[in-house]
Design brief:
The chain has ten helices and 33 strands. The protein has about 675 residues and is mainly beta.
């Protein structure tokens, strides 16, 4: 008992003693009390830094306004060491490094009577105003991490992914703040998504965004993993990775005879990096679900016009499904990629996933509504340009094109050039070319320079398909943005005055975004109009259409429609509220042998006629959708959230048939999920 009492007393005294920390001490701060030493350290560091710091000329010329953060440590030998600066300016990084090298050697920090490293962050606001800059201390080193003094100590950087070449998962609500930060800055490009962490981190302090939601009173392992941290984090000499086990679990009820709706997705995600230039990511979903009636009807597609062969259905945006129990679906999905960034101008990615081009909620050029697909991407970013090359390996899973029990393959090659004409105006040029997989991949499509039209012409009229597009964005104010898109599938200049001609195939988008709307912080308002003419994105050979996995690569609704939508989003602390309203008209086919131009998987040779074509022709259907969502952020590291949603959908065709009826749907859902991708049930 005496030994046990001695051990307990020893460890108790050790814990009490180890809780006392001593900050690094400047010579001017010696002899002061413990609390005064901390304040003195901040004051001296700030004073010495800004006394020496000279704002680089390039920042003054560009009238740069914003904030960067310098992460530094005071080593266990008392030296100041810069870790990184989240700035795109090489000159600024060099100046900050130079200034830290001029700071004197001081007495290092102490824990448990040992010299240790201590990490700090110094915000640098531009224009420079030293009075507004406050040094922030990072999470103190834990007792178990305190070691004896060693010549070289490892530095663990929090949220290592923020400095990596990985993609920020694209989810519309999550991207609102990111878009606002990029639009406030100068010479940024916002159309190509997903964004890359390291690029985004130069315009918005991602560390601070997460730190402000930290629950600092969570000291248990379970508490920290639930609220603050990744499930597993490993950092070593030149490498790092993190792992999370996430959920997308939903339970709900609609007004149909479906007993209840559910989704049960278990998600394993791994992210990591090797060195500064190479990053990797992998995400695996194992899912079962039963949705509201109109979504279930879409999945099963009883008329079999687009249901994938060898499957029980197609879950929108996810992929093939097989039957699960009596009336549910099992649909596994996997995504992953490798990213290599040899320099600040160039990045390569190769993997399987989704890409998006546009500034709107929808896109008529390239959207993320279809299933994940293999891709190779090259981004070049310099001066006022961002140039994206994207090569996609698509699949036509419909039954008619199956050969030897294999789905038909297709290749899609895309160029997108974004140009900042001025501080307010951005324009973009888009082109895409599609070819059949059984012809092999034409090396001509690997041409990194525009234009693909010449490649398609040299291969022959029937060898492929092509699409051209334009984008524009104009910044009325930092918080008010206008944007637009134009997609041209085919256009007859000889019949330019006759829009009823079937060959005039195009779509366009007009929209506006209002951040901090009506001077209310974190209130976001968006309005958007989309329209796509009949037969756009289709081809006489359906394999060559602008689609993948029985879904459009452009707008979710395909073609032959107009749509108006409005979005309002408001967030406060961990809460966010989102409302969306959609009204549109779409023309559906009323015959299996005639195409009215809305189904891009029907040959346009089945068109109803060359002339007298109009928008939403055929079985004209009015679609009205209202969607309300509320979320509460649980874990700031992996974006796991509690949520609740209520959706109302009114589907009103002019002509009802046995399989095509009017329907009013009300769907209530509750659950927990992470912001990894966009669900689109608004069709």
């Amino acid at each position: 008992m005496k030994k046990i009492f001695f051990i307990v007393a020893f460890f108790y005294s050790l814990i009490i003693f180890s809780q006392a920390e001593k900050y690094p001490v400047f010579k001017e701060c010696e002899g002061q009390e413990l609390k005064q030493i901390e304040a003195c350290f901040y004051k001296q560091t700030k004073s010495l830094f800004f006394k020496e710091f000279q704002s680089p000329e390039v920042l003054q010329k560009e009238n740069y306004k914003g904030a960067v953060k310098a992460i530094f440590v005071v080593t266990n030998t008392g030296n100041f060491q810069l870790i990184y600066v989240n700035s795109p300016y090489k000159e600024l990084n060099e100046e900050v490094k130079r200034v830290f090298n001029t700071l004197p050697t001081i007495t290092p920090a102490k824990y448990n009577n040992h010299y240790v490293e201590m990490r700090f962050a110094l915000p640098i606001n531009f224009p420079i105003n030293a009075n507004n800059d406050v040094i922030e201390e990072f999470t103190p080193i834990k007792i178990k991490e305190v070691k004896e003094v060693k010549p070289a100590a490892k530095v663990t950087v929090p949220f290592k992914e923020h400095q990596s070449q990985l993609n920020v998962p694209f989810q519309h609500q999550r991207y609102i703040d990111y878009d606002f930060a990029l639009n406030r800055a100068v010479n940024t490009h916002t159309a190509t998504k997903p964004y890359v962490y390291s690029k985004l981190n130069t315009f918005i302090d991602l560390d601070a965004e997460k730190n402000k939601f930290f629950k600092k009173n969570q000291t248990s392992w379970a508490g920290k993993k639930l609220w603050n941290e990744h499930l597993l984090e490993v950092q070593g000499d030149g490498y790092w990775f993190n792992l999370d086990f996430l959920l997308d679990v939903q339970l709900g009820k609609d007004n149909s005879d479906v007993s209840y709706t559910f989704n049960n997705s278990r998600v394993l995600t791994v992210n990591g990096g090797l060195g500064n230039d190479f990053s990797f990511s992998a995400t695996v979903y194992e899912s079962q679900g039963r949705f509201t009636k109109y979504v279930n009807d879409y999945i099963t597609n009883r008329e079999l016009t687009f249901r994938p062969a060898f499957s029980s259905g197609l879950v929108p945006g996810r992929g093939k499904a097989k039957g699960f129990k009596a009336d549910a679906f099992d649909y596994p999905v996997s995504e992953g990629y490798l990213a290599y960034t040899p320099n600040k101008f160039l990045q390569f990615q190769f993997g399987s996933g989704k890409n998006f081009i546009g500034d709107g909620y929808r896109s008529v050029l390239l959207s993320d509504v279809s299933s994940p697909m293999p891709y190779l991407k090259m981004d070049v970013n310099f001066w006022k340009f961002k140039y994206t090359n994207l090569w996609l390996w698509g699949t036509d899973v419909t039954r008619p094109v199956v050969v030897n029990n294999e789905h038909a393959r297709k290749y899609i090659a895309i160029h997108y050039l974004s140009l900042n004409v001025s501080k307010k105006l951005n324009i973009g040029f888009f082109e895409a070319a599609i070819s059949r997989g059984n012809n092999g991949f034409d090396i001509g499509f690997m041409n990194p320079l525009m234009f693909y039209r010449s490649v398609e012409f040299s291969r022959g009229e029937d060898a492929g398909n092509a699409l051209l597009g334009l984008t524009a964005k104009y910044k009325l104010r930092d918080n008010f943005i206008l944007y637009s898109q134009l997609a041209v599938d085919e256009f007859s200049f000889g019949k330019i005055s006759d829009l009823s001609y079937w060959g005039n195939k195009f779509g366009f988008q007009l929209g506006a975004k209002y951040f901090d709307a009506f001077k209310v912080k974190d209130l976001y308002v968006q309005a958007e109009l989309n329209t796509v003419r009949p037969y756009t994105f289709a081809h006489k050979d359906p394999v060559l259409n602008y689609g993948n996995y029985s879904q459009s690569l452009g707008h979710l609704w395909g073609a032959n429609f107009w749509e108006a939508l409005g979005i309002v989003n408001y967030k406060f602390n961990r809460w966010s509220l989102n409302g969306k309203m959609i009204l549109g008209k779409k023309g559906f086919d009323d015959s299996a042998t005639v195409s009215n131009g809305g189904d891009i998987y029907k040959s346009y040779d089945l068109r109803k006629g060359d002339y007298n074509n109009s928008l939403a022709q055929g079985n004209k259907t009015t679609i009205f959708i209202t969607d309300l969502q509320a979320r509460y952020l649980l874990n700031t590291a992996n974006r796991l959230s509690l949520f609740g949603g209520l959706t109302f959908r009114k589907f009103s065709p002019e002509t009802e048939t046995a399989t095509f009826k009017s329907m009013n749907s009300i769907w209530l859902t509750l659950g927990i999920k992470a912001d990894l991708f966009n669900w689109y049930f608004d069709f």
